[in-house]
Amino acid sequence: MKVIITDEIAESGLQQLLDDERVQVDVRLGLSRAELHQMIGNYDAIITRSGTLVDQELVNHATKLKIVARAGVGIDNVDVDAASNKGIIVVNAPFGNVNSAAEHTMALLLSFCRNITVANASLKSGAWQRAPFTGYELKGKTIGIIGLGKVGGRVAKRCRAFEADVITYDPYISEKRAEDFSVKLVSLEEIVRFSDIITVHTPLNDETRGMISAEHFKGMKDGVIIINCARGGIIEEEAMLKALESGKACGAAFDVWSEEPPATETLKKLIAHPKMVVTPHLGANTFEAQKNVAVDVSREIINYLDGRPIENAVNIPRFDPDLMDQMKPFLVLVSQMGEFISQLAPANPSKVTFVYNGKLARFDCAPLTVCGMAALLNEQTDTDVNMVNARLVARDMGIEIAEVRSSEMESFSSLVTLMIESGDEKRTIAGTLFEGIPKIVKMRDFMTDFTPEEHMLVISYEDRPGMLGKIGTIFGEAGVNIGNMNLGRRKDEGEAMVVFSIDSPADEATVERIRQEVDARFIKAVHMTL
């Protein structure tokens, strides 16, 4: 695997990649867009920070690219949709710099509250002044935290240690998570109305861009303090400047900007304002954080090479890490089911339904659905389909994906059923695990019991004496050895379905001879990539 690194990355964190003989690492800093576009087609992975734009144009040139690894939390410099459409995995390092970001938030907040920056400059100039630098305590203040994620949660703990009252707004967390941090979960309007200090800790996306606007500033307390150590643009900078100029906000501390480096007049005025404490996006700039994020993305690339689950892919649905060992065998099951049924199903499917019964239904099964779709669609299209782009490919093909979960148990503690519809035709397959081994237990309305193997033959025919003997004779004359056989019968209609596992593939002539000898209603050779 060839890996290109285009931004400054801590070499000590890359050691796992550098020591792996399968990996060639090229560090190419300071490339122009044209230079990067010209050479990206030679690489399987790219490791970046915020200085490299991975957009649609770059993806178009990246003919071999498998992974985009962003050595940091944010991915606003990566066009995730463009990467997903090409089946490129996008990973980040969401844990490596969270402590650094939380500590920097507190550093900015305390620097403003105690006038550290201006007092430092004053004393260094030779003056001895104290009264102009009277500050604020955090004790007893109401601090509103927007976003109680990995960074916001750490900030909450630190603010609580300063004996502040902490409230939080985060529509994606539970009451219990807020309770775990000893903070109160409230609405955004309550954050705006009651907070003495407001700090934001959300990603930048369509939902959060401009989240704090001029209208919000109108509803804030006079003398409010605003902190942004998350992403530039979450707080409207023009509104922030006006709030400082009017005295509505007594001050602010920003580490991030909507344009970096800042060039607009608004940003220049905001940075120069005497009531602003500012830093040039240093939240993750600690030696520890730089090493941690490099270690994290290096580990993800090795995971990809080794075929292990990728923990921090932003465009692959994944299980909670604590569930991964338990759920991994089901990923194998649905992948085998998808590959198997796709070779039997009618062309041009319009709908694919995944049904999860029993204990399995207690969990989020989205990763199983996507894994099953990827296996199914790889047999239906020339596009390389994986868990990244399976839903997008299905959408482009006009295939509806449905998912049903039910805790009701039938004959098995957990059962996965996959149904493919195409016009009036329908194919159904159901599977489960026996001691961790995938088993197909139902096809159509025939009960079965077999483990998918590399070479198989599925036949349905009118159930009458001598049919299995004829099939065995034909296989023997063709030099094909039968490994296993599973027979399902429908007594009412006299139909039988038999699934053979064979040691070598059956050629077209052998399949056609079996069709004629047993007057097969359906016959299909299946090849599994196990």
How is the topology of this model organized?
Elements: E1 2-5, H1 15-18, E2 24-27, H2 33-39, E3 45-48, H3 56-61, E4 67-70, H4 80-85, E5 89-92, H5 98-113, H6 116-124, E6 142-146, H7 150-161, E7 165-169, H8 175-180, E8 184-185, H9 188-194, E9 197-200, H10 214-219, E10 224-228, H11 237-246, E11 249-254, H12 265-272, E12 276-278, H13 287-306, H14 324-342, E13 351-358, H15 366-377, H16 390-396, E14 400-406, E15 414-422, E16 425-434, E17 437-443, E18 446-450, E19 455-462, H17 467-477, E20 482-490, E21 495-502, H18 508-518, E22 522-527
Parallel strand pairs: 1-2, 1-3, 3-4, 4-5, 6-7, 6-9, 7-8, 9-10, 10-11, 11-12, 13-14
Antiparallel strand pairs: 13-15, 15-16, 16-17, 17-18, 19-21, 19-22, 20-21
Helix pairs in contact: 5-7, 11-12, 14-15, 15-16, 17-18
Summed over residues and divided by their number, the pLDDT gives a mean of 92
Largest β sheet strand count, sense and barrel closure:
7 strands, parallel
Domain count: the total is 3
CATH superfamily name of the largest domain?
D-3-phosphoglycerate dehydrogenase, domain 3
| Individual helix count | 18
End-to-end CA span: 23 Å
Q: Tell me, briefly, the overall form.
A: elongated
Structural class: alpha/beta
Seen as an oligomer or otherwise, the chain set is single chain
How many DSSP E strands?
22
Rounded to the nearest angstrom, the radius of gyration is: 30 Å
List keywords for this structure.
Rossmann fold, alpha/beta, 60s Ribosomal Protein L30, Chain: A, 33% helix, six-stranded mixed beta sheet, 530 residues, seven-stranded parallel beta sheet, 22 strands, elongated
